[in-house]
Amino acid sequence: MSVAPPSRACCRAKRGSALVIVLLFVILLTALTVAFLARSLTAVKVSASSSGETKASLLANSAGDIIIGDMKQEIIAGSAPNAGTAVWPIYIPATNNPAATPPVSPTMIPFQNGIPTSGTAIPNMTSRSVSPSNTGGAASYVPYNASYYTASQTPPNRAATDASALNPTFSTTAPYTTSKVNSSRPSLNGRYISPAQWNSHYLIPRDPTKDAAGSTSADSTPVPSFVPPDWVIVTRGGAKSVAWSSGSGGLNDPTLSNANYAVGRYAYTIYNEGGLLDMNVAGYPADTTAGGPNGLTTTQISKKGSLALADLTQLTAGATSITQAQVNSIVGWRNYASSQLTASNGSYPNFNFTAATASNWLTNFVMGNTNGFLQVVSSTTPPTDQAFLSRQQLITLTQSLGMSPDFLQYMGTFSRALEQPSYNPDPNRPMILTTGGAPPAYTSADSYAGNNDVEGGDASANPSLLTKRAPGSWPTLRYDGTAAVSGEPLIKEKFPLSWLSMVTYNATAAKTATDPIYRRFGISRSNPYGPWTYNHGAAKILTLTQVASVKREPDFAELLKAVIVSGSLGKAGPNLHNNQYNYQYVEDYSVDTQVIQIMANLIDQQDADSYPTVITINNNTVYGVEDLPYFYRYHLMSVVDKLPKESASPFSNKLTQTFTAKSTDTTTGTLSGPSKAVNYLTGATQAATWTLTNTAPGTIQGLKQTTLTDPGEVTLLYIPDLWNPHDPNTALATGAANRPTQFRLYAATDDPIGSTAPYPSGGTPPWQVGAESEMVGSGDKYDGSTPPNLIVAGLTRIIPEKDDPRVSPARHRRRPRLL
């Protein structure tokens, strides 16, 4: 069969379809190409932006390092030579003016440069980058004082120089200043940093002509006295002061051989935030109505022992003050978990505190804080406590509460650092007088002559803390659980006073390096009814040099001894009881005893009970001060119980003697026969004598001595005064369970004349005075075998301690404890 060829129309349709497909492919390829090119261009821009961002970041980081490095160099230039090592340097500010009273060290604070000399002061401002050419402006360049700083060690001024900066003028419109090197003057591309931008942190007081003080306006224009910082030009040769110039060899000359070619610029202002209120801590919850029941009580607020109890409502800006409602909003946002708030207490920014939630805040956030507010209180259920991580967060929160930005110049967000102690004793402190030889014995009349037993050892007893370094290979870790590194400071952190709460009235401690009380305080006892014994490797308080040699951290007593000037402790007077014991002297001349007394007082002032902490050291015993009555003084009083009795009346037998005297003569004589003058204690008699002057002749009569059959009796009374030095209106912190309730004073004596030998060489002490409390222990009665300093406390103190359940009440009464 025959097949007909395709029609011409059909062929034309197929060719049209192919053309459409080709065109579609061309469009697709074109789109892909355009997308590729667009993406490539975008990538180039992103890459360029990333490169610029990286360059800016590197420049900013480098600028920060340079600024910090210059400040460190300033410290070196204003300090004495390095007292440490190259790895652990120690720079102590030089006393630049020792003739002043007291001696001054201007280099203790950062050097101030470019600070306004007129107009409104800027308290927070320390320094700024300022051109050396600016020698006549309102905030001009100030060179380092050669009297205070070593010229060869001072850091260079790196800001650019220009003749226009010699005496710049300023206005309120752009360009703000005539100085070309000032950061507020527009550059060729029109960029500049305005004064308002420099004060975007609100650390500078705002211009009152823009907004009234206390205004909630966000305008940050600073007071007119503020001068923006000058540019530091970073060139190929580094960040150094260069002339502001252009053209060949200038800042804009990219020739490879031109070291002055600018690669960047920076300007800076340094502020001191150390005196600002840390808003991660400051502020407490209180009733929005003064004296209301919701919030902390007046008694709780009065315990101003923490920055957290700072009253923010006292901050004012003009006639405006921070309200307590705004403070409660900050505290609620910051300490939601610590306060144990719930939905019933509202939500941000309207929190309603009660007495219970405010007490929770005080207990958990303030009293229970053990990390220096460096960590927030965690919670298993949100919301948790929060902290300001930046100043920008603080600004945002205050703006949301409608607070005036004027208050921000008083606020900061710096974390509290547990900084390393850096105490350095004053070289002009009171020193201990020296006798030029070995101290005399304490039984000597000239013993110490007003000094103490650290004579000649002031430097070792009170060293510069930073000079004491840790040896390597400690047998134990530090208090914070880290290992000591050889050469690092012996004391790296402050001693937390919260550790004082470890020493309770019923605590015990073993004399081991792992016991927390013994390790931190050097005291131990095996039962809660006896006194503590201080002996941290020796029956004395070690110096820091000695502590370092035994490879451990110093305990609390050793720290106190190191930082309390020895010349102010234990100033004993001479022992006027020649070759005898002076009760008070043996306590006064011992510096270690005085330090242990201070430690006991500190422990007792922070604890909740009223049992004095009793600590012995080298046979001396001290007692902490508690809210109890104490012996204040004694009154002497004598009562004649029975008059002397004689064999006959002295008037029954008179002795007479006549004499003759002229008006200008003085006549003396002795009555004939025994006189009536008698020493009843010894039985001796004395002759009665007489003297007459300018008298006429006459007769004098005397009494004849009779036999004394009864010497009579007289009672000598010691009447004690008891006095409680604490405020009588202070409520007790605890109940009677942690407070002694029974006391009994006693005194006993032997016949002072009937002793077989005088005390102390023989016999017994003529007086034994003491107090019985609710405890028995060793040393209940003085036996004369040791120096009587053990009973000194009996003349001044009562010792109440804890009941001993092992002793019956009857036995208690039979065993008085001698003070």
SS content category? alpha+beta
What's the average pLDDT?
78
User: Strands across the major sheet, in which order?
Assistant: 12-13-14-15
Query: Which outline best applies?
Result: elongated
Compute the number of helices: 14
Radius of gyration: 43 Å
Low-confidence stretches: 650-657, 661-667, 669-695, 699-703, 752-760, 764-819
Query: How much beta, percentage-wise?
Result: 5-15%
Through-space gap between termini: 145 Å
* Biggest sheet character: 4 strands, mixed
Structure summary, number of beta strands: 27
Helix content: 10-25%
Keywords:
about 800 residues; single chain; about 15% strand; alpha+beta; about 20% helix
Question: Overview of this structure, please?
Answer:
With 819 residues, the protein is α+β, with helices and mostly antiparallel strands. Strands 12-13-14-15 form a four-stranded mixed beta sheet. The chain has a three-stranded antiparallel beta sheet with strand order 3-2-4, with helices on one face. The termini are far apart.
